[in-house]
Amino acid sequence: MIPVIMSGGSGTRLWPLSRKHKPKQFLALFGNNTMFQETLHRLEGLTDLEDPIVVCNSEHRFMVAEQLHELDIDKAKIILEPIGRDTAPAITVAALQAVSEENDPILLVLAADHVIADLTVFHDAIGQAKQAAESGLLVTFGIVPTSANTGYGYIQVNEKNTISKVKAFVEKPDLATAESYVNSGDYYWNSGMFMFKASTLINELERFYPEILETCRQALIKSQQDLDFIRLDEQKFKSCEAISIDYAVMEQTDKAVVVPLDAGWNDVGSWSSLWECAKQDDNQNVLHGDVMLDDVHNSYIHSEHRLVSVLGLDDITVVETADAVMVAHKNSAQNVKLIVNQLNKDKRQEADNHRICYRPWGYYDSIDQGERFQVKRITVNPGASLSLQMHHHRAEHWVVVKGTAKVICEDQTILLSENESTYIPIGRKHRLQNPGCVPLQIIEVQSGSYLGEDDIVRFDDDYYRN
Fold it and tell me: N or C: which end of the chain has fewer CB atoms below 10 A?
């Protein structure tokens, strides 16, 4: 059995913690591990488990690789989507990749950003699903509903509390309809988790959506190996129709069955669901960071960088990061996507990046910026190197705070120790390297007419970025 981890989501409903370039699956929201890592961690103890296949956004590839490395998973196949095309194409390329290397493996398809509390029940459900998948069925996991939730799709079944044929897939209902579904006992929440033989899925795609199958096959055939990544052919994959696996296959096949799952599942799709999943105090508050309260109940308060104090309020969500603060009533917190839409419309960086931005060589923190200047604190990992690059519009001053820097500027190479500095004029090819065994920290002061991250011309890069 091969786990297929779908990790292409943007997680905008948990802004400002979750952002485009570091969405919720790569955040540690419930402990030391990220949600992506927890998805893999909860599979421990299952037998006959092969190395995973991860399908992710190209921009997230180094986070995926690093977080896999932290779990000592070094043989995963990481497939890079040049653009999101929903779940059907993503799962299809994973199935094609799997059959290209295995006989006919069973695929366990999981989202990278779900919470499952009861692992024993989860493993038992996987065991039931595996038997059904081995017999040629397409299995989806139906969540036993705990409320009339209007945020989920529903699955109607023929038989209750057992593996059952699917009777119908239903779109997200209104509240009255959702209540009737839950009261009937004939419906489950649609979890978006699946299990099937790779060949079974491929055969059903051949029946219902052969154009998707062929496009994905060509995108994989023409893919390129990029370090540890499989980079799908951009032109072919972009031409693929964007459609979910539910619409493409599960709603059309006569082989779809549901395995019930009552294991404390949550897709953490909103601040209220995050509040439900986290540990609450005696006043039903969830607190993170430096927080002081008085007469506050049923609230989620998250502080990352400074003291947050709240007085005399109930049912609120407060989230503080280095560059943004979000305050909302719990009933309105799901509308945070409206704020993200406005940020995107205004082309503001807060929609995409945190103040701290991670790169394959380390990370930088944008400390200050103003008209014609920007200050960053840059940390370069031991042995790592930035690209050989040039800027058209800005010059840079570098001051070493910790460690040793190897600096290349045109034909000159120098070593800088702590408290030493150098200047990189506009238009000069340059490179920063850390030749030491401790992290290198420098302060970079940029000055010029344009300071955007897209003013980078790369001539050579260890990580094959454009």
Answer: C
